[in-house]
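RESIDUES AND SHAPES:
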Amino acid sequence: MDNKVKMQAKNVDFFYGKTQALKNVSLDVYAHNVTAMIGPSGCGKSTFIRLFNRMNELVLHTTLCGKIFLDDLEINSSLVDPVDIRRRVGMVFQKPNPFPKTIFENICYGLKVNGIKDRAFIEQKVEDSLKKAVIWDEVKDRLDDSALKLSGGQQQRLCIARCLAVETEVILFDEPCASLDPISTAKIEELILGLKKDILSLLSPIICSRQPGFQTIRDFFFWVSWLSLVRRRISSLRQKIKRQRLILPGGSVK
């Protein structure tokens, strides 16, 4: 297990207007590990993980207190470009969101935005990324087809490949299998297990999910809920996980 802290949240409070959604939350995310956050709808999972790539600042009337670090970089500093953070910290959403472009153009889009023009390099990067996302064999003969023609599970793996193409260091998964069938879900879970061993120097997937199946692929497990619910479930969960931490409404992580 890699003990290097890749991302870190320190004493985080977050508000939607005057409504406080997160209170004094601190959390370490380790490199080359799968960190799972599981809890019911509305408990703050998505709000929390979106802080790691500054997605929440796109929402009006929100306020963040506390600090988020990527390696030793405080990502919310005024000197930090949020576009660079979102390149280093990618995100895969609950519903697949491929661009209305070809499969090839979806993968190479980030490369071109970053100024890469070498056609041979781009073609190799597209192939490598699709192979890492375990979808190359399914699409290699149809790279010029619209990505919207793919199945839901294929679209989700395509979105993961799009992150890998720009050498994303951290991937945030926000309930990535919520709208997928069991077979597609199994493929995504297998893919996530492989990603933490990827040749990328630092890759730390974070899973935000209500699906208990993700307990089988995580290295660190966080149950996000209200205190009464945690107390009812902790005895059964203790038998299933090697290491457990709880984020409680008061913000403590145990």
